[in-house]
């Protein structure tokens, strides 16, 4: 009987009441696939269930089956949310005030070393503490269960008789992609998990219900298999942009396959002897700890295929097309960098997550730019750390501690901005030398005391708005709840059409970019360098990203300006360059947190102090002092993976805890 189809990972026994609830959930929680178009007002694809009582009825007609497909989509993680994306605040990239009255964000507890086995923070396994999306209502094992139900029913040709065969195949492919993505999301957090190839009947014996964790390599192979099955069917692009933007395409599936294989090839999962003792209760080893160089080859091949598919579908690195305003090259370059992320459905966005909107993250990134702007309407709490500000290159395209022509050894030294700097820093304003002579991405992505913030309502006056961030200033940290912690602000995530009214602020929403073409280029360069070391092709894809950012190529920059000119000539040196390039290009997009972990660098990076400027200073002398906000503590190998909740382990005797918890 179809109604007995049910997946469980943590529970041995289920009440009839809960079974009834799951019956209803099969179709009752389908939510709108929100679409945001460049050329028109916001529109929505409203998916309102017609009170369908059973799963069988959900697959009688095409319209009802489509609603169930959107239920599968509804579980996509809200990565464009400061609250629901752990990668925003669980690492060292940004910090926020630890003021629970203003914002309760459990990923900050992880960054502060407060993770726990009793009611773990950001528990995506069970769907608690914001690990299950809004209202803890979208935990991913539920999403996987819905995908399995959809795939099984739509694969039955006797069901949904009014659907075209090609559409049936496409919808099944979308559900397979989502199933692979939800598994991968959990595996990055927890390591090996029980892979739910099929749903387990609720009346199955306990030895069947009590599933064990699956071997990592075998699980990766299954996810790749799902991706390949989806890739063979999915369309290369969305043609019906009025109703289908956000649906999965072939380049998206190829991109996910690349990300899965790159993660699998990385040091945390490839040859990591620290994980040798993680075994199931029957002694089955969950990680193969022998290094396998072939994994990098698979990742490189997948990345190149994904790039070719994306470019073949019309994707390209974004370039600001200009506007009706007269802008300098400096401002145009910054808009090119910012809009690659925040401009709706631009040419670079391969995968836009329409379930995850960005109004909240823009509100918490934006700074007041005038005395009349309310700090409640531009909360500025997302505060990049001093370490992240220092990681951006100099104007010569090399790290600040390698540039032979510039000296950043004493960042407490202050300097007054002159005419040459006026499109980046307010002319006549005094700020740290750290904020001078930096690459375009520094000024595009970051705001700081004295920095110019160009947006649409600036018009031709490119220097109309600038930040005043000292304690008593309009962007200062002088409010009870919403204040900046480090003296740096996130400009990158705020769409340039943002505007202030007399007592309000307007933010132009966009679908969160889960995958950009620049990301694929950098993944390919990373994997290819591990396969063959420095090569013209590795430099080509690195330099495509750098050229768009207004920088010379790697070899030219290091030869002319670095104290270590031979660094790009070895695999190890180029690896370090690729890692830094990725940290810069993908800054504030939730990439660094997972990259640092898969590179097995968290025990170094996440054990350093969180620092910023003294935002409580009222003048230059007191403001430009380095303040330690928090001393992070990362325990290896324990903190590389989330703990399973104690309750989950009690309810399923075959599950084992992650190491160290």
TrEMBL record:
Its main location: membrane. One of its GO terms (cellular component) is cell outer membrane. Keywords: Cell outer membrane, Membrane, Signal. Residues 348-661 form the RagB/SusD domain. It holds the Pfam family SusD_RagB. It comes from the Bacteria. It is found in: Cell outer membrane. Residues 140-260 form the SusD-like N-terminal domain. This is Putative outer membrane starch-binding protein. It comes from Leeuwenhoekiella marinoflava. The lineage of its organism: Bacteria, Pseudomonadati, Bacteroidota, Flavobacteriia, Flavobacteriales.
């Amino acid at each position: 009987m179809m109604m007995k189809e049910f997946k469980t990972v943590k529970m041995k026994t289920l009440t009839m009441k809960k079974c009834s609830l799951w019956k209803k959930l099969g179709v009752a929680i389908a939510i709108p696939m929100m679409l945001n178009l460049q050329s028109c007002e916001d529109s929505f694809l409203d998916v309102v269930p017609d009170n369908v009582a059973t799963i069988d009825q959900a697959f009688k007609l095409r319209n009802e089956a489509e609603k169930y497909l959107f239920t599968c989509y509804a579980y996509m993680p809200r990565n464009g949310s400061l609250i629901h994306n752990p990668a925003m605040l669980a690492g060292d990239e940004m910090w926020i005030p630890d003021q629970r009255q203003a914002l309760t964000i459990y990923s900050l507890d992880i960054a502060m070393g407060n993770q726990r086995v009793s009611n773990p923070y950001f528990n995506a396994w069970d769907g608690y503490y914001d690990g299950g999306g809004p209202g803890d209502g979208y935990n991913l094992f539920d999403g996987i269960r819905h995908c399995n139900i959809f795939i099984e029913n739509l694969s039955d040709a006797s069901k949904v008789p009014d659907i075209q065969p090609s559409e049936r195949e496409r919808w099944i492919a979308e559900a397979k992609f989502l199933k692979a993505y939800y598994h991968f999301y959990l595996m990055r957090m927890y390591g090996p998990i029980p892979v739910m190839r099929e749903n387990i009947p609720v009346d199955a014996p306990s030895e069947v219900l009590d599933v064990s964790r699956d071997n990592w390599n075998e699980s990766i192979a299954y996810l790749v298999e799902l991706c390949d099955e989806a890739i063979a069917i999915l369309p290369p692009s969305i043609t019906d942009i009025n109703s289908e933007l956000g649906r999965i395409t072939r380049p998206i599936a190829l991109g996910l396959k690349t990300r899965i294989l790159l993660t699998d090839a990385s040091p945390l999962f490839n040859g990591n002897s620290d994980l040798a003792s993680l075994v199931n209760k029957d002694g089955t080893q969950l990680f193969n700890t022998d290094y396998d160089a072939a994994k990098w080859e698979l990742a490189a091949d997948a990345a190149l295929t994904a790039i070719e598919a994306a470019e073949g579908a019309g994707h390209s690195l974004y370039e600001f097309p200009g506007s009706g305003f007269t802008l300098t090259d400096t401002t145009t370059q910054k808009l090119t960098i910012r809009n690659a992320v925040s401009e709706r459905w631009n040419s670079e966005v391969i995968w836009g997550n329409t379930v995850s909107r960005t109004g909240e993250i823009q509100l918490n990134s934006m700074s007041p730019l005038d005395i009349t702007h309310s700090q409640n309407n531009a909360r500025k709490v997302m505060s990049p750390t001093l370490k992240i500000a220092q990681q951006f290159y100099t104007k010569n395209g090399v790290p600040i501690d390698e540039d032979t022509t510039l000296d950043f050894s004493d960042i407490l030294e202050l300097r007054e901005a002159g005419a040459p700097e006026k499109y980046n820093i307010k002319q006549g304003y005094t700020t740290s030398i750290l904020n001078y002579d930096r690459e375009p991405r520094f000024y595009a992505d970051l705001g700081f005391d004295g920095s110019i913030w160009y947006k649409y309502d600036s018009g031709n006056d490119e220097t109309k708005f600038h930040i005043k961030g000292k304690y008593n200033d309009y962007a200062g940290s002088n409010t009870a709840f919403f204040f900046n912690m480090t003296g740096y602000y996130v400009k990158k995530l705020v769409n340039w059409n943002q505007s202030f009214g007399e007592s309000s602020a307007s933010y132009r929403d966009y679908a969160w970019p889960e995958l950009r073409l620049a990301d694929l280029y950098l993944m390919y360069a990373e994997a290819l360098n591990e396969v063959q070391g420095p090569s013209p092709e590795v430099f080509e894809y690195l330099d495509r990203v750098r050229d768009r950012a207004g920088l010379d190529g790697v070899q030219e920059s290091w030869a002319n300006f670095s104290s270590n000119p031979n660094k790009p000539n070895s695999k190890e040196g180029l690896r370090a360059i690729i890692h830094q390039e990725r940290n810069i290009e993908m800054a504030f997009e939730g990439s660094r947190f997972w990259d640092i972990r898969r590179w097995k660098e968290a025990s170094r990076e996440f054990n350093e102090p969180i620092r910023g400027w003294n935002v409580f200073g009222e003048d230059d002398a007191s403001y430009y002092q380095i303040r330690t906000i928090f001393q992070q503590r990362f325990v290896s190998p324990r903190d590389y993976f989330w703990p399973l909740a104690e309750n989950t382990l009690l309810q399923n005797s075959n599950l084992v805890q992650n190491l160290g918890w």
